[in-house]
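Hey, can you fold this one?
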Amino acid sequence: MTHTVFIDGEAGTTGLQIRQRLEARRDLRLLAIDPAKRKDAGARAELLNSADAVVLCLPDDAAREAVELITSNSVRVVDPSTAHRVAPGWAFGFPELAKGQREAISASKRVSNPGCYSTGFIALVRPLVEAEIVPADWPVSCNAVSGYTGGGKGLIAEMEGEPPKGTADAYRTYGLTLAHKHVPEMQLRTGLSHPPLFAPSVGRYAQGMLVEVPLHLWALPGQPEAEDLRRALAAWYAGERFVEVASEAECAELAKARAGAAGYVAELDPEALNGTNRMKLFVFGNHQRGQARLVAVLDNLGKGASGACVQNLNLMLGLEEGAGL
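Sure. Predicted structure:
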């Protein structure tokens, strides 16, 4: 059986990558709107209601409007925007979130994709809260850096352009109001009682990201070791195809600094998983200081966006979960 899919907003960064992952598949047929009718509500509504599945690669308000245009009870929707990530009635599209999450996604007609930062943060923190290693009311912070493609067409043009229209900035921090749009889902999907303190940033490279959660182990109940955290993560994601936990030996090897011309350089690359739907989790610790750094590596356009969308779409249509990935 061939399923029809309409990507509403396929001209954007996420939409283009989803299309690239789907267009060669024989089990799917992509529907497209006449470019001249992209703003024609009637033409869009016709496609939105005729497809077996719809992917909404749109700004938040436009995604909400698109959902209102869908009147058919058979259409399945995957929304990569922020619009529905904490909305009632929408399944959260992180299959590895918890036992039964795949089934919830498969059974739902409305699935909201996680944010890229959220994917890494939730993957690191949810298992530790569930295991009661990190209390739900613990003050958790998160530092992260992403490639500039996560900022959309405007930031891409700025980063890739030459001054004065472009920029020579190598790195920027942002979210200084402490109200980043990913924070609500980061709190809700981890079970934390308080919003995490989130410090996002962007680097002058196209895609790939590091999401980090630092912890004072000496202050946590039971004073766990870093290896206790790593084992909890490894047990949670045992057997998963797209989420991997680095071994104790690999973490120890990476933690060994090497002397370089500019000092000591850590061997952790935000671009390491670019072009994949994979995410890899690391735990680094210092026993003497009672501290740990948990780090997730993923592609902000892969497991953080387009790849995750395809994974969710496969589940919703009853197809092999890794098809096209």
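The longest strand covers residues 209-216. Let me know if you want another pass with a different chain boundary.
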